[in-house]
Amino acid sequence: MGKSPGDGQALWWWRRRRSALLDVGLAGLAALECAVGAYALVGDRLHWGFGAALTASLLGVLAGLTLVVRRRWPLVPAVVALVFVPALFGVVLLVVSLYSLAATWEWPSRRWRVVGLAALAYVESVGMLLLSFLGVDSQPGEVQPPAWVLVLVAVLVAVALTVPPVVTGLYVGARRRLIESLKDRAHGLETELDLLAEQAQERARRARLEERTRIAREMHDVVAHRVSLMVVHAGALERIVDRDPEKARQSAALMGEVGRQALNELREILGVLRMSEETVERTPGLAQLPGLVAQSEAAGMRVSLAVSGETRAFVPEAEQTAYRVVQEGLTNAHKHASGARVSVLLAYVPNGVRVQVANDCPGLGVKVALPSGGNGLVGMRERVLALGGSFSAGPDGKGGFLVEAVLPSRLAVTTRGAGNGAAE
Predict the structure, then answer these.
(1) Which segments of 135-146 does DSSP mark as H helices, in order?
(2) Of 45, 51, 92, 348, which has the highest C-beta tally within 10 A?
(3) Quick one: how many helices (H) and strands (E) in the chain?
(4) 139 contact partners, CB below 8 Å, separation of at least 6
(5) What angle do CA 34, 35, 37 make, to 5 degrees?
């Protein structure tokens, strides 16, 4: 917030220059009133001479000037006012010092000090007024008011001198502390919002990274498997094209079908951002495993599929992950174990669903060199672990290779929630 025209740089304990000017003005007015009251008391009433009256006036000036420090040490002018009030002067000093004391001191922590000093000022004010009223000699013929009237007037005037300044000071002090508290809270909220904005940006960055990683994995799964099949078919086609044209024609047709499937899956993956729900519905799952195995078998792989347990549905993410694990296992068999027997197992077990791809020790048949990025199994492991499952891949001790993944039963779709994809 910008400064108002009356604001300036801080001066000593004043935050603004106009506050300093106000305190100096009040101190000057109180000093004048105390000086005149002290001179009248010592010179006119007590008749102590001019020197004593002048000294009393100087003390009155010093007493009034204590209001200069009312913001820094509010107790000082209050105590000075309590000393001079019984001498029948210092009204301005009393009113301003009580207000400053109540406005500056926090009410919950110093309530009894404020109440005690205000009560003492009230008693002194009542005594000062009664002394002033009762000490006046009545002239002959004048009607003297009853004593209770004078007491009542003294009490009311004392209340007017002490209660309004204290109440006003308490209100202003509480309002000032409330504003400062709201400013601190607003500053804290602003800082918290900045932190939340930074965290939101970081989450968005991570979400973008995870989405890119997910799409890259899907691209790898589709491209690696389909292209591997196409390369295998191309190698077989090259060997049989002269001696078996009919089988070569079938292999060429199968290569075209595999290529079209790869293009369709790539279109679905690239359109995930604008058709996410439809894409999820079309993602491959456990029901498509027979077709996946049939494609590898058509490419010349000796592969078999075994299904055990009671069939049940799982959430789309789990079924797609299981499908990709089998797909990656078959792709690795195409790459590294050409000619070996491959067995695929889909087992519905009590603790979830287990998929397994195992190949025997590869023989000495013709092998087709296929490039490998080395990221397929790593990506499969990350996807399975992200769903709370377990994944293992490695030699089986007999010269073959085993890829296995188990997804937990909590990912299964209940009968009641099968229509909307609710998980157990």
Answers:
(1) none
(2) 92
(3) 11, 5
(4) none
(5) 60
Domains and CATH numbers, the chain: 17-195 (no CATH), 286-424 (3.30.565.10)
Measured in degrees and rounded to the nearest 5, phi and psi for residue 401 equal -140, 140
List the end-to-end C-alpha distance of the chain, in Å, as a whole number.
Answer: 55
Contacts of 411 (CB under 8 A, 6+ apart): 314, 315, 317, 318, 352, 387, 388, 423, 424
pLDDT band at 154 (very low <50, low <70, confident <90, very high): confident
How many Å is the Cα radius of gyration of the chain?
Answer: 48
Query: How confident is the model over 118-145, as pLDDT tens digits?
Result: 888 888 778 777 777 666 555 555 566 7
The per-residue pLDDT for range 82-122, each reduced to its tens digit, is: 887 776 777 888 888 888 888 887 666 677 777 778 888 88
Q: Which two tokens stand for residue 390?
A: 């377990």
Exposed (0-12), middle (13-18) or buried (19+): which is 414, by Cβ within 10 Å? exposed
Using CA atoms, how far apart are residues 47 and 245, in angstroms rounded to an integer? 144
Q: What is the largest CA-CA distance in the chain?
A: 155
CB burial of residue 174 (10 Å; 0-12, 13-18, 19+): middle
Is the four-CA dihedral 415, 416, 422, 423 of positive or negative sign? negative
352-359, strands of its sheet edge to edge: 302-308, 341-349, 352-359, 401-408, 390-395
* DSSP structure string for 362-378: --SS--------S-HHH
pTM for this predicted structure:
0.44
Closest CA to 378 of 323, 328, 310, 340: 328
Helix-, strand-, coil-residue percentages of the chain, each rounded to 5: 65, 10, 25
Residue the block writes with tokens 């001066």: 11
